[in-house]
Write a structure and sequence with these properties.
about 270 residues, 6-stranded mixed beta sheet, 14 strands, disordered C terminus
Length: about 270
């Protein structure tokens, strides 16, 4: 398996530059994405993203979409057989209409929130333009495996050997991490379970960081409980944690993939 770290949606927010950290896995003649970032139709018509675009200030560019990044690597987006989502927010699932042929994997609780959720927050999170094309959803119930102390883990061996979908609730009802086995241990993409590296180092966050995480969480109390478990996991030498938006974690993962065997940079 080869792993590429892609930025599929740079955000120029008032609190600084962020990325949309997407993983591309090469598995034989197939490709698998972990999240997608923004899609080509979002670039052509940013109004699809709703008013949040005036907060995130996404730097939209066709070359920075998932399909654009894949083509830049000399690969074919048609070879993407599966997309595994940490959750369904617009900056994570915007590219799934570009991959209508692929299976879209997520936890069943997240699929239910996308299908049945009500209210302005839900309408902002899960954009009709991203989900209205009747994607080929594979909604996974909580699994029976416990991985690194995290219960409900789902095995996705039919997607990629050893791949795991790990419930990390709080940010959204069915938020999950995606654990990828590597020659050096595990690479765990935690999506928006923690928005920056400081959350993984200490619970004593600056007020602005804590407020930002709490305001956008569907269930702040559950999110804080998830973050406490992630801080403990961050001390495990077998696990490298990355997330969706922290620029420092993205750059560190790219540098590490350049230096290590088996996970070359994309």
């Amino acid at each position: 398996m080869r792993i590429h770290h892609l930025d599929c949606g740079t955000l120029r927010t008032p609190v600084g530059r962020m990325v949309c950290h997407v993983l591309l896995l090469e598995i034989g003649d197939r490709l698998v994405l972990v999240d997608t970032g923004f899609g080509t139709e979002d670039v052509r018509d940013p109004r699809r993203l709703g008013p949040v675009r005036h907060v995130l200030f996404p730097d939209l560019d066709l070359s920075r979409t998932a399909v654009g990044r894949i083509r830049a690597l000399g690969l074919d987006p048609a070879d993407v057989s599966d997309v595994v989502l940490t959750h369904g927010d617009l900056d994570h699932a915007g590219g799934i209409p570009d991959l209508a042929h692929a299976r879209i994997h997520l936890l069943a609780a997240e699929a239910a929130a996308i299908r049945d959720g009500r209210g302005p927050r839900v309408r902002q999170r899960y954009r009709t333009g991203h989900w209205g094309h009747d994607p080929n959803l594979v909604a996974h119930p909580r699994g029976t495996r416990t991985w690194k102390g995290l219960e409900g883990t789902v095995e996705l061996d039919d997607v990629a050997p050893g791949l795991l979908l790990v419930p990390l609730p709080g940010h959204t009802p069915g938020h999950a991490g995606v654990a990828v086995p590597t020659p050096e241990g595990w690479l765990l993409h935690i999506g928006d379970a923690a928005l920056d590296a400081r959350t993984l180092r200490t619970g004593r966050l600056r007020l602005d960081v804590r407020l930002r995480q709490t305001l956008i969480a569907q269930d702040p109390r559950t999110m804080h409980r998830t973050q406490r478990r992630l801080r403990a996991l961050a001390r495990d030498p077998e696990v490298q944690i990355i997330n969706s938006h922290d620029l420092s974690l993205f750059e560190a993962a790219r540098a590490r993939s350049e230096a290590g065997p088996g996970t070359p940079l994309g």
